[in-house]
Amino acid sequence: MDLIRLDQSTFRADLDEIDRWLEQKGFHQRDRLRVYRANIAEMAQREQASHPGKVFAQVQSEGRLSEILTSYAEGIDLVDALTSLRKKQVTIPDGLLKRVLDGPSDASLEDQKSNRGRNAMFELLMGAMAAKQDLQPIFGQENPDVEFQFLGRRVLMECKRVLSEKKILDKISEAVHQLEKCVHPDNGDIGLVAISISRLAHQGNGYWDAPTVEIGRAFLSRALRHMVDDLNKHLSKLSFSHAAGVVFHVSSPLHVQSLGYTVASEGLVYPMNLAESDCLRSLAEILRL
Fold this sequence. Notes:
By secondary structure, the protein is α/β, with parallel strands linked by helices. It has one domain (8-287). 49% of the residues lie in helices and 17% in strands. It contains ten helices and seven strands. Strands 1, 2, 3, 4, 5, 6 and 7 form a seven-stranded mixed sheet that branches. A hairpin with a 3-residue loop joins strand 6 and strand 7. The chain is globular, with a radius of gyration of 19 Å. The model has no long low-confidence stretch (mean pLDDT 89).
């Protein structure tokens, strides 16, 4: 998958533009995105007076490092997703957008009672991934979370995030039961379960420090593959006619000396229905997984 690079020269302007767009849509509250915007503006101001390394050390001593890192990582993801969706003129339901902006601004404080916002953000990210490839996603009010057309077939996706590895199989089963309500395999529908394991890679309290982008992404790719290999003995026993495959996705803050703080993402498709392997392989290539 692509690296989402933080360009400080445009990032704050992009945040400002999205802030104005939210205002026009009637979102006036101090939500997560507005907190990220304020934090990043503060960091830019502080870095004008001191070296970034010293500023981050000060932030850590103040007990704010987790929220600041979250502001960068999720701020980048939100700007990228919303910008892509708006550019492709994809309709974002107000209800989904309201949920996306919900939740604690510090990712390390997220729990089962406050994960609604980041769950919705994962739906937004999956929709944006399709939009970037001109697949014109539709966000569902109920099931599925995301729908688009591929090779003349409907692709219906249910998106789930996990806060612990032991919940992965439960979340896959939950998503499949939801797909059973809307996927019609006899009509050529393709059902997909999208699972985000980002919280397992990034607890909100740190970042991966890598000498190059390639090394950072390779680490994420190995970690993702290792986790899926461990799950294989359980996944191979599952047979769901309504789910052709599982999309595993991971995103994490990354610090690269030449780039600063940015976000790296990796993904892979695990086929649940071997008869659809060729279609899933083509879809993975189009989505750049």
